[in-house]
Amino acid sequence: MAYEQLKLDNQLCFRLYTAARLTMGAYHPYLDPLGITYPQYLVMLVLWEHEKQTVMDISHRLQLDTNTVTPLLQRMEKAGLIKRTKGKEDARQRIVTLTDKGLAMQEQAKHIPECLSAEILNHIGSIEELTKMIPTLDKLIEGLKQTNNEH
Amino acid sequence: MAYEQLKLDNQLCFRLYTAARLTMGAYHPYLDPLGITYPQYLVMLVLWEHEKQTVMDISHRLQLDTNTVTPLLQRMEKAGLIKRTKGKEDARQRIVTLTDKGLAMQEQAKHIPECLSAEILNHIGSIEELTKMIPTLDKLIEGLKQTNNEH
DNA sequence: ATAAAATATATCGTTTGCGATATAATTTTA
DNA sequence: TAAAATTATATCGCAAACGATATATTTTAT
Asked: What percent of chain B has a predicted confidence (pLDDT) above 90?
């Protein structure tokens, strides 16, 4: 191995990639009973914060493009969690709203964040160490958004 | 919005998910010319460290299951980057080795890590702040590995 | 007012990621 | 040693991601 910088263990990005995947896996025991996936859970979080959002709103919030969000919403509509109606002022837009089922799911989901925290806390010393990463991750995300827009 | 803990902005996991995706996007300008994807780049990193590894070795190293790694390797074989041969002592195993093309790609790839660092540094104050996350991410990954194995 | 540009969403094709299951070879057990 | 369990890899099906492209609607420019 000639190049030290090419070693996997020196790569922050690989850690982010792995941590993100394993985190999604840790949600499985909590999301499976609700019948939703992690990205679908994210959409629910967005809609629980504000009812009535366009596809754009959601895709901006999740930093995902419409070509990812549209099929996601279509599956969620089929599952009876949301409704998608044509916009009235602007007919190009799709207005996404929660169904009763989707709204009711919030009650079942409200303990998930603390369950996850507790689960991780079992295997890690302090939750503070994790929350300390948040400002750095936010800066990284903002930086990457710009970087990716330039190319 | 009734539940504070369900707010997207309070979620570490969402940040990991987003940071990981955007990071992969930042690799695009460097990996596209090589004709490989980010997960394929990770396989290359593993193989540049040690020639001759089994599918298991690679999947352990990347924390991916064989049902992800096998098709990945099949595509890389088709692209002429690796060879996959039946194991001699244990015929169940597949031994993965680099082709000349795969080996040569290391030279073209050796600047990628510093390019990425520089790119991110353009938009973020200090690289130290990022490297400070590494031990925490490692702990998190180890913890999640255990958490996920229990379920 | 009409053509051109911009915008919002959708569709298509490919690669990943992963649960479930299958297949083949090796090891263990009875 | 033959059957059972284990191990290594592969296959299948579905949900994401995402680049590229298409469609429909609105806005802008001429």
From this structure: 79
In 3D, which of B62, B125, B106, B14 has the Cα closest to residue A43?
A: B14
Specify burial of residue A75 (Cβ count, 10 A radius: 0-12, 13-18, 19+).
middle
Give how far B54 is from chain A: nearest CA, Å.
Answer: 17
Taking only residues 17 to 56 of chain A, the set having a beta carbon closer than 8 angstroms to any beta carbon of chain B reads 17-29, 38, 42, 45-46, 48-50
CA–CA dist B74, B83 (Å, integer): 9
Please name the amino acid found at residue A141. Answer: I
Residue A83 has pLDDT above 70, yes or no: yes
CA of A92 to C1' of D22 (A): 14
CB contact, 8 Å: B4 with chain A? no
Asked if residue A116 lies in contact with residue A30, where contact means CB atoms within 8 angstroms, the answer is yes
Question: Residues for chain B: how many in total?
Answer: 151
Give, as ranges, the nucleotides of chain C with any atom within 7 Å of a protein CB. 7-13, 15-21, 24-27
Query: Average pLDDT, whole number, for chain A?
Result: 94
pLDDT tens figures, B84-132: 999 999 999 999 999 999 999 999 999 999 999 998 888 888 888 999 9
Q: What is d(CA B114, CA A121) in angstroms, rounded to the nearest whole number?
A: 34
pLDDT at B1: 58
